[in-house]
Amino acid sequence: MITLEMADEKGVRMTEDEKFNLITRNLQETLGEDKIKAVLKERDLKVYWGTATTGRPHVGYFVPMCKISDFLRAGCGVTILLADLHAYLDNMKAPWSLLAKRTEYYEHVIKAMLKSISVPLDKLKFVKGTDYQLSREYTLDVYRMSSMVTEHDARKAGAEVVKQVSSPLLSGLLYPGLQALDEEYLDVDAQFGGVDQRKIFTFAKKYMPHLGYKERAHLMNPMVPGLTGGKMSSSEEDSKIDLLDSSAQLKKKLKKAFCEPGNVEENGILAFCKSVLFPLSKTGEFVVKRSEENGGPVTFADYKALEEAFAKQELHPGDLKAAVEAYLNCLLEPIRKEFDTPELKKLTAEAYPIEKKKGAGNAASAKEGNTEELSPSRLDLRVGKILKVDKHPEADSLFVETVDLGEQETRTVVSGLVGLYPADKLQDRLCIFLCNLKPVKMRGVMSSAMLMCASVQEPRSVEPLTPPEGSSPGDRVFFEGHKGEPDEQLNPKKKVWEKLQVDLKTSDKLVAEWQGNTMMTKLGHVTCDSLKHAPIC
């Protein structure tokens, strides 16, 4: 039988060293260990963890929940900040109209998660950001901090957390300062978060003393890869498992999860075992139930043993996924049951309303007067391999390319690259193609996709975009922060492509972006060779 709950150490008196070891175990980095030890000599530590109430929490949230359980077992006073104001300031990821509902949803779902791993709620304090961040004192401190923080430092501090765009809103620049001030106004000794928060933590260490407040310690969890191998993200559907996913949805997502035999790097399945399942195991073990013909059941005493077996390919990805599926269902079932009420179903629908798009033939939507959302998720962008390049028989400036886009049949693509990009460099190259434009006849040859290139006029230069290494024809290309299915075909009368194309360009790091949102596949970023700040078309 699968057992998932924290070992109960109630009544066990811990030494200062034992408390310190429990507080800091499994962390990637700790800043201010001396401060933690000094506090523990006098009293229990006070810690806070904040979460911006934006996208729906996913199973990756069990990573901080495990550490919160550790803090409580070590006797810490723990505050969970529902950072509603932060959620709005981060490029309005949570619209003001939905903020209250999303904050309420977060509190319910986090409490359900903690109960599912046997964490007593009476030891926790939940605080909503706007309950104190709109006060006179806090506001004056925001102004005081803004008088000493440069734009450079504010932007640098939020680089890993706040959505980055070429012309940032002032709200995003305020974000790191507010997070630093929270340490004082929540009256804590340490702030806990992911290692992606490190720049904000060092910002707080630098500027809080300038305001006359003490410097705090900072505890950082490792970032757990998503199921596709990159960061687990609320905004990228395939990268995460929602806490309310059914067992069937869970099985489907795990089946698609990246888990290459022998590959222990960027493996979201293994990372979840390391950061969640082993720490939550009452016995400290991980059990894989296999059929006798596949080697029979096997028990791993610690994560190192599991990783070594997988690296040596002694454990098949399918068996690992099946074991993780069983453990996850054990974790999620109490949460599903708690949210299976009319009240919480209504709250979920109000906090995260389904986006309605007026598709072709959707008369009901048209009657309601809904407008189509202008989002890059509507673009059907895919990795394609150019199998053959020929000169157009009727046009000196055009190439005719035969492209494998992961479909049963190849597509023909006409590109105006003659004299701008060598044919031999296109041959057998992986590129990015826009596949849902209306096919168009170009000088007698029908073109059914568009080759995506970065391009500058002075001096004239064109470079095809390049997918991440290891990509395959048909791999989907998406934009970080935008989810949804692409249109079956873009309506040329609506000028969707033309409106979206205006904000497509490369960054100073040669990464393709739309309004600062990275273009990527499950394997990483889409780039170009050398053209910076170049329009993409």
Automatic annotation (TrEMBL):
InterPro entries: aa-tRNA-synth_Ic, NA-bd_OB-fold, Rossmann-like_a/b/a_fold, tRNA-bd_dom, Tyr-tRNA-ligase, Tyrosine-tRNA_ligase_regulator
Enzyme class, spelled out: ligase
Catalytic reaction list: tRNA(Tyr) + L-tyrosine + ATP = L-tyrosyl-tRNA(Tyr) + AMP + diphosphate + H(+)
One annotated GO biological process: response to stress
Keywords: Aminoacyl-tRNA synthetase, ATP-binding, Cytoplasm, Ligase, Nucleotide-binding, Nucleus, Protein biosynthesis, RNA-binding, tRNA-binding
Enzyme Commission number(s) from the entry: 6.1.1.1
Protein name, as recorded: Tyrosine--tRNA ligase
Organism this protein belongs to: Dreissena polymorpha
Lineage: Eukaryota, Metazoa, Spiralia, Lophotrochozoa, Mollusca
